[in-house]
Amino acid sequence: MGSTGRFKRSLGRLWGAGRAFAPPDRSRTGSVLVYHAVGPGEGPAIPEERFRAHLRLITEQCRTDWPETGFPGDPTDAPRVRVTFDDGYRDNLTVALPLLSEYRVPATLFIATGRIGPTPEACPDGVYRGRRMLSRDDVRRLADGGVRIGSHTHAHRRLPELSVAEVRSDLQASQEALRSALGEAARELAYPWGGAADLRPDAALLLAEAGFAAGWTTLHGHVGRDSDLFRAPRIVVEPEDTSEDLWAKIQGEWDYLTWAARAKGAWGAWKVGRERRG
Ligand SMILES: [Zn+2]
Questions:
Q1: Bridge partner residues of 31 (DSSP)
Q2: Least CB-packed of 91, 165, 200, 230 within 10 Å?
Q3: Domain ranges within the chain, ordered by starting residue
């Protein structure tokens, strides 16, 4: 891990220590974890044994029941956790699925359908370049294995860079690909990259039009009754996160990231307002 990771971790410990004096936050009803690749191969991936340790922690300390649509309504004593994977790497089938089945942890895969071919092709670009992606048959096998399948768009482009017409046709293409592979369209989507700069204000409208009932970001946070269904927060799990780190994130020790992002947003809005005014 680099020094940024160590710095973030120390901040998390401090925030967690401060939070211990605050009353428990009853507005949080669940944590949605984001994984990418698992096991050996090109690009950053969580080692298989570490992923196993995470699943052991989830089974022992958390609940994994989650409603079919929307967010859990009530907070629980054991934190409620949902496991998701973005992109559609082949190791999600070969490495992750057997472990998920062994520990009986339900999972959702958000698949960039444009990267799914008749055979498992290598990822063409980005940090995971060279890693094999799922094939259409693989996606079917995952669904048969009880994994929920969602969309990660078709072309994995940054949505704000596309025109409304381009977003519409991308979402339609993704739903068609899933319908032809699985017989039904997806109900949920995870935005490519999913950071504040990767979201667009008309996303809820465009997603709903394409048949989606939820849009997941990578904005750090827990879900609650008041969360925005089309700007839903998740918690990104890094390949170097130990079980202790994962537990800290689930417990809210990394929540200063939410406040940091909000403060950054407010600061940006204030600056823009001031520039406009001035
Ligand atoms: Zn992605």
A1: 81
A2: 165
A3: 26-277
pLDDT tens for each residue of 143-170 = 999 999 999 999 999 999 999 999 999 9
Write the secondary structure of the chain as one string of H (helix), E (strand) and C (coil): CCHHHHHHHHHHHHHHHHHCCCCCCCCEEEEEEEECCECCCCCCCECHHHHHHHHHHHHHHCECCCCCCCCCCCCCCCCEEEEEEEECECHHHHHHHHHHHHHCCCEEEEECHHHCECCCCECCCCCCCCCEECEHHHHHHHHHCCCEEEECCCCCCCHHHCCHHHHHHHHHHHHHHHHHHHCCCCCEEECCCCCHHHCCCCHHHHHHHCCCCEEEEEEECCEECCCCCCCEEEEECCCCCCHHHHHHHHHCCCCHHHHHHHHHHHHHHHHHHHHHHC
**Ligand 1 mean position to 18 CA, how many Å?**
33
Q: 114 C-alpha vs ligand 1 centroid, how far in Å?
A: 12
CATH fold for the domain made of 26-277: TIM Barrel (3.20.20)
For the stretch 69-82, pLDDT in tens is 788 988 888 999 99
Write down the pLDDT at residue 277: 42
Res. 268 pLDDT band, cuts 50 70 90: low
Cα-to-centroid distance, 163 and ligand 1 (Å): 20
| 23 Cα: distance to centroid of ligand 1 (angstroms) | 36
Dump pLDDT digits (tens) for 192-210: 999 999 999 999 999 999 9
What distances in angstroms separate CA 42 from CA 1, 11, 75, 124, 144, one per listed residue?
A: 17, 31, 39, 12, 27
